[in-house]
Amino acid sequence: MKLAFVLTAALSLTGTVQACAYYKNCHCQNSDGMPNDEATKASCKKGDIRERTEMGVTFKECHRYQYYFFGYDALSNCKFRKRCKKNGASGEDSSCRDKQGKAYS
C-alpha cells in the first residue's frame, strides 16, 4: 500500500517538471509577467529581434529557426530562460511559442 502511494506521488510530480524543448520564438519576462525587451535583446544569440503585439502589449521577441537537411536550429527554452535571468529578467520563466521538438538541455 505504501509503495503504491509513493509511486503515485512520484508520478504526479513528473508533470510539474519544466521540460526543455525547441521553439522558433522566445522573449524574457519580468516577475509581473510583462516582457523585458532589454533582457530579450541581450539573450538573443544567433537570432533576429522582431516586434510582436499580444493583448495590446508590443514587445521584442527573439526569432531563431533554420531548417537544415539533417535537422533544424531553434531556441532551447531552458537555455533561453537561463540567459534571460543572467541578463536581468526577474521572471521565473521565459515565454516561448511555435514549438519544434524536444531539447535535452
TrEMBL record:
It comes from the Eukaryota. Residues 1-19 form the signal peptide. Keywords: Signal. Residues 94-105 have a biased composition (Basic and acidic residues). Residues 85-105 are annotated as: Disordered. This is Secreted protein.
